[in-house]
Write a structure and sequence with these properties.
By secondary structure, the chain is of the alpha+beta class. The chain has 9 helices and 17 strands.
Length: 304
């Protein structure tokens, strides 16, 4: 099995490249490496391997955004298997799909490779957006986008306390966020939610660096889970966010969750949107957008 490392040097605000230099020295098997130079590069790299006639293990050395690009490029290709070495800031991908902790684990996997088919979420709005873990509208999207653009994130990451920046922006966004109305269609149902803070479509339990937003989500069951937080005060929302890491937020009446193969979502005004924590523009006003599972799944590593 050919092994290719796709390294995002910008992941973890530069820490990924330093980690790679240390990691590379411990590898005792043949491998290739490609270092990304711009957003979308990991997608292009993975796409280039799609026509390979031999099995290839693509290992993303970066964060959730890097893995999303690799998987989008590899989806539907029977010869491509995707794994990771967690080197980003949030690393929610690693929590749900497993990750290689060291080169020895990769070598052992290569001797007896096992894989499992995984779902890939998507929606179309001018172009197709795909997500591995989750896509959100509203409060969480605005926070994620602000965090990714923040110089504070880089400074705190250098001190080893990068996760604090998320808390900083939770509080900052909490004070100024404007709630919205969300319309949700699924099967023959139409539900209108007023005073909505966020709506997150999940394919796995975690988002935001370890928050268990959707405890019942499974990565390969052909279903998506929708979480809507609505009609809740700012103070109580802060309390709810404190319980998300354990998944206890689902006990609050202001948190609605449902599971289905497809959801149609519409907001009455443009609202910030993300895919796996990266900026996905804004939702179009009063236009139903279908969130569903892509016809092309992907093959992930299966660790014992």
């Amino acid at each position: 099995m050919k092994t290719v490392f796709i390294i995002n040097p910008a992941a973890g605000n530069g820490r990924a490249l330093k980690k790679w230099h240390r990691f590379e020295k411990t590898i005792q098997f043949p491998f290739e490496q490609v270092v990304t130079t711009h957003p979308g590069h990991a997608l292009a790299i993975a796409t280039d391997y799609r026509n390979s006639q031999r099995d290839i293990l693509l290992i993303g050395f970066g964060g959730d955004g890097t893995l999303r690009e690799i998987i989008a490029g590899a989806a539907g290709a029977k010869t491509l298997l995707v794994g990771s070495v967690a080197a980003g800031s949030g690393n929610d991908f690693a929590r749900a799909y497993g990750t290689f902790n060291d080169a020895q684990a990769i070598e052992q996997f290569r001797e007896k490779p096992l894989s499992t088919r995984q779902d890939l979420g998507e929606f179309a709005n001018g172009k197709v957006f795909q997500f591995v873990s989750s896509s959100g509208i509203g409060f969480d999207a605005e926070i994620s986008i602000a965090v990714n653009r923040s110089p504070l994130k880089k400074k705190l990451n250098q001190l080893g306390i990068g996760k604090l920046v998320y808390l900083v922006y939770v509080i900052r966004t909490l004070l100024k966020f404007e709630k919205f109305t969300l319309s949700v269609k699924y099967d023959d149902n139409l539900v209108i939610y007023e005073d909505v803070w966020l709506a997150t479509v999940s394919n796995q339990p975690y988002f935001g660096g370890g928050m268990k937003i959707s405890p019942s989500s499974k990565t390969n069951d052909g279903l998506l889970e929708l979480t809507v937080v609505h009609q809740i005060s700012r103070l109580k929302l802060l309390l709810v966010f404190g319980t998300v890491f354990s998944g206890a937020h689902t006990r609050f009446k202001e948190v609605s969750q449902m599971s289905n193969t497809k959801f149609w979502l519409s907001t009455e005004k443009p609202v910030c949107r993300h895919v796996d924590g990266d900026d996905a523009g804004t939702s179009p006003a009063n236009e139903m957008i279908a969130y569903t599972i892509s016809q092309n799944g992907w093959q992930s590593i299966k660790l014992n």
